[in-house]
Amino acid sequence: MRHHGGVHRALLSTAAIGAAVLALAACGSDDDGGDTAAAGTGAATAASTTGGGEAQKVAVLLPDTQSSVRWETADRPLLQAAFDAAGVPVEIHNAQGDKSAQQQQAEQAITNGAKILLLTNLDSGSGAAIQNLAAAKGVKVIDYDRLTLNGKADYYVSFDNVKVGELQGQGLVDCLEAAGVETPRVAVLNGSPDDNNATLFAQGDNSVIDPKFESGEWVEVADQSVPDWDNQQALTIYEQMLQKADNRIDGVLAANDGLANSVISAQKARKLDPIPVTGQDATLQGLQNILVGDQCMTVYKAIKAEAEAAAQLAIALSKGEEPPAGLVNGESDDGQRQVPSVLLTPVAVTKENIAETVLADEFVKRDELCAGAFEKACDEAGI
Fold first, then answer.
1. Of 13 and 134, which is predicted with more confidence?
2. 28-38 pLDDT per residue, tens
3. Which of 75, 248, 271, 342 is the most exposed place for a label (fewest CB within 10 A)?
4. What CATH number labels 161-300+350-380?
5. What is the pLDDT of residues 194-209, one digit of tens each?
6. Which long-range contacts (CB under 8 A, 24 or more apart) does 28-34 make?
7. φ, ψ of residue 101 in degrees (nearest 5)
8. Domains of the chain: which residue ranges?
9. In sequence order, what are the residues at sequence separation of 6 or more whose Cβ sits closer than 8 angstroms to the Cβ of residue 193?
């Protein structure tokens, strides 16, 4: 394993995860459980509980719906299904961007008997506070998707986030070359400055694009982070970039599809031509933007595999077992120690490989992707 950016990388296949979680789930009971969806803002709490024999209770703490719709549309149902299949009692909460609410949800979950927390923090400071509380109560914590810096997580499950950034950087290089832009003027929209993932994404993309700036092949117009991954703030920030640059921006390194769509919206509002824009998360909107030529690529992270891996760890811990052999495949530096980690492989998605990636995995359905005005674009792309 090589060390890069605090992460020892050894990548796990989605097939291996899927097979292991099915085997683990088969050991559980057949009890079913319901779920009440989180809605609204502030201290929104959504919980569900399933029966589970001798398994200890798990609490899932999701961050919001603002940074990405994935938390409710993908992660919640996938995690719920995995715990249900294994007969493990679970409650799932979404803090809707409220750090105090997430702290309260953690406290209540522990009071309710949760012995394992599956945590996606809103930032490392609030995440560490939750983990300190859990440690004091003898509750184990799995950092899910976002590593808590200087925390006390027992495990970390995510993607190789430096690689995500590398794919974005190379994607922008490829798209600008394909567009035939000489000495392109490039802007960078990073994710939230208090999200460790955003730091790792930037580390990866900088390794690709910084040499372009330093050599003079590209001109750096602006480089700015977007607080809380907020798309409205991203729109304002990018509009300011355009204003200062006299509308002369040839490409944008955008850290996810939401930020990319803000760029696209600003371009359209000023009646400017589409330019190469990167993304991440393979959202429906991002993929449709790619189909019609408004976005050049996104990074697909197989959320199903990530959720299954996290569920495997939580299920094993809830039953007093060791993680399945081969699941933990690396370590991640949280600033004070190495956290045992499951690191999965991200994939670059362009118009050319939508069919064999996100559609083949049924991450999105064709009838959703190609609905209405996008039918023609799908036909032209051979989808």
1. 134
2. 333 333 333 33
3. 271
4. 3.40.50.2300
5. 898 999 999 999 999 9
6. 28/52, 28/53, 28/55, 28/85, 28/86, 28/87, 28/88, 28/315, 29/53, 29/87, 30/87, 31/84, 31/87, 32/84, 33/80, 33/83, 33/84, 33/89, 33/90
7. -65, -40
8. 2-153+303-344, 161-300+350-380
9. 225, 227
